[in-house]
Amino acid sequence: MSDDDFMLDTDDLERRMDGAMASLRTEFASLRTGRASASMLEPVMVEAYGQKTPVNQIGTVNVPEPRMVTLNVWDKSLVGAAEKAIRESGLGINPQTNGTIIMLPIPELNEERRRELSRVAAQYAEHARVAIRNVRRDGMDQIKKAKGDGMSEDDQKLWEEEVQDLTDRFIKAVDTQLETKQGEIMQV
């Protein structure tokens, strides 16, 4: 194998790291910051028709007021399952049912709850960092394999630096998003 034959697919690595960032953004959106948001229900999965189903696929999610989210469940038989899933989701919201409409009043966040949500945000960020590092490891493994197949040490160092730069850029983005989210959570 000549040195020119090896091409690391950095676009693939970047796409996979982007996936970790997208997942982090979704998880951050589910953390409530004292204001009602339809996206806070996105991670909630309801046991419906024998399988786990996202809550937004069993009803309509609305935000009629700044401190209220409603879920209008289409199938009356799923109201209890939806209420149970929301209660067990860890959002810290107590659902109130009125027929097929589940109302979710968003209480003010106290200092203890803000700290707890901040810790949850930090956990989400750490999961994203681990996912990004796993992608980095895959890239480094490809480079090591190519080194074994005859790649020069200079080329190996060049590719390793490129993968590390990509990793550093994404880890920095995770840290920036975490800082922003923790700022939102702690804001009174």
TrEMBL record:
Q: What is its main location?
A: cytoplasm
Spell out the GO cellular component terms annotated for this protein, sorted alphabetically and separated by semicolons. cytosol
MF annotations from Gene Ontology: ribosomal large subunit binding
One Pfam family name is: RRF
HAMAP family, per database record: RRF
Q: What does this protein do?
A: Responsible for the release of ribosomes from messenger RNA at the termination of protein biosynthesis. May increase the efficiency of translation by recycling ribosomes from one round of translation to another.
Q: Please state which protein family the record places this protein in.
A: Belongs to the RRF family.
Q: What is this protein called?
A: Ribosome-recycling factor
* Native species: Pseudaestuariivita atlantica
